[in-house]
Amino acid sequence: EQENDFPKKSKEKLTYIPIIEKNEIVRIQDTQSSPPWNLDRIDQASLPLDNTFTYPASTFVPTVYVLDSGLRYYHEDFGNRVKVCVYFYYLASTCDDYYGHGTHVTGTVAGTKSGAVKNANIKFLRLTDDYDSSTSSYYIYAGFEWAIDDHNNSDPTHQAVLNLSYGGSAADSGAQYWMAAMKAANIIAVVSAGNGDQYGNPLNACYYNFGFVGRYPYDYGVSVGATDRTDKVAYFSNYGPCVTIYAPGVEIVSASYLGNSSYLSYNGTSMASPLVAGALANFISVHPSATRVDA
């Protein structure tokens, strides 16, 4: 006869279970309600927006490198995920952001509220001095070298993502060399296609900034142009065969350098590029063994 509806044999077996733990629900994705519109846009194929952003709830933590103007690294949007924030000691005296660009860009890549990838480790390099928001190709190339060395020493077998939302003159052999070096080091470079000339007139991205990276035979990275809320190419966005993809870049809300819980709205391909960088990091978080071709 059975006691308490359990066979005696089963009760004996139960005595050999070493640990009993609470059962938990395991999710493969999470959803953010009322996200910034750019996040809302990238998790669905077409308009209208549904006021949610669904993203992977993965266990693998990808690495994103951001090279920019500085970072308010204690902002609430980053939690404790800023693992490195460095600067050129002969150029600046701190990693802090005095201009807002770097904090906003990093938030769009990996902010908890404003970012595409929620679990990434952030490694940041400030490219500017204490008094100017511009930089030179020398420091950008040195930043590429720093990222390559760090990735080779920390996690060389997995793909990492690097965002550069900086532009300038036409690409040269140095740019091609360092882009190829990052590709060889398992770092996917994502760059802004540029915001046109000084008068706001869009330009062919192949001839300005690092926009050439997205065109064969280079294929060194991803060159990103900007769109608006209606999916139209933004009036300021560079264009052409070197632009790999267009992403939201108008009225983008992200982390602000003005306070630890403040947010601002910016426009530019500088805002579109980090969104793509974050999306690529999300893919890597779900597919940690993915190759560059997969991504």
Overview of this structure, please?
The protein is α/β, with parallel strands linked by helices and 295 residues long. Helices cover 24% and strands 20% of the residues. Strand 4 (82-87), helix 3 and strand 5 form a beta-alpha-beta unit. The longest helix has 18 residues, at 137-154.
Per the principal axes of the C-alpha atoms, what is the gross shape?
Answer: globular
Helix/strand structural class: alpha/beta
Q: What fraction strand? A: 15-25%
Spatial arrangement of strands, main beta sheet: 4-5-3-6-7-8-9
Mean pLDDT: 89
What are the secondary-structure elements, in order, as H or E? HEHEEEHEHEHEEEEEH
Features:
disordered N terminus, 24% helix, seven-stranded parallel sheet, alpha/beta
How are the SSEs ordered, and which strands pair?
Layout: H1 8-14, E1 29-33, H2 37-42, E2 52-56, E3 63-68, E4 82-87, H3 101-110, E5 121-126, H4 137-154, E6 160-164, H5 173-184, E7 187-192, E8 221-227, E9 245-248, E10 252-255, E11 263-266, H6 269-286
Parallel strand pairs: 3-5, 3-6, 4-5, 6-7, 7-8, 8-9
Antiparallel strand pairs: 1-2, 10-11
Helix pairs in contact: 3-6, 4-5
Nutshell version of this structure?
The protein has 6 helices and 11 strands.
